[in-house]
Amino acid sequence: MIKRPIQCDNMNHRRSDAPVSHCPQCGGVVNERRVGSRCEEVSHALARRRQSTFCVNCGERLIAAV
Ligand SMILES: [Zn+2]
Ligand SMILES: [Zn+2]
Q1: Ligand 1 centre distance from Cα of residue 13 (Å)
Q2: Which of 30, 40, 41, 65 lies at a CB distance of 3.0 to 4.6 Å from 12, suitable for a disulfide?
Q3: Residue ranges of the chain with pLDDT lower than 50?
Q4: Whole-model pTM above 0.85?
Q5: What pLDDT, on a 0 to 100 scale, did the predictor assign at position 3?
Q6: Is 34 helix (H, G, I), strand (E, B) or coil?
């Protein structure tokens, strides 16, 4: 099985115990054990303000691609 190479330089991809479940830059899963809970819209609003392209909790895209 060939894994797609990660085109993302976010450090969470290199951690075995990332503090978040998804990468804020590419939306990929970085820690499967943390995947699960759904988000409140307010936490997405806060994440948008931090310029996160993806939600680190649920992986949803927050900022539309240009
Ligand atoms: Zn990433
Ligand atoms: Zn979310």
Answers
A1: 6
A2: 30
A3: none
A4: no
A5: 65
A6: helix
Q: Which ligand gives the minimal distance to the CA of 42?
A: 2
Do residues 52 and 24 touch, judged by C-beta distance below 8 A?
yes
DSSP string over 43-60: HHHHHHHTT-SB-TTT--
Q: Where are the domains of the chain?
A: 20-66
What SS3 state is found at 22? strand
CA end-to-end distance (rounded Å), the chain: 32
Q: Looking up tokens 């949803």, which residue turns up?
A: 60
Q: Report how far ligand 2's centroid is from the alpha carbon of 4 (Å).
A: 24
CA 2 to ligand 2 centroid distance, Å: 29
**What residue has token string 């479940």?**
21
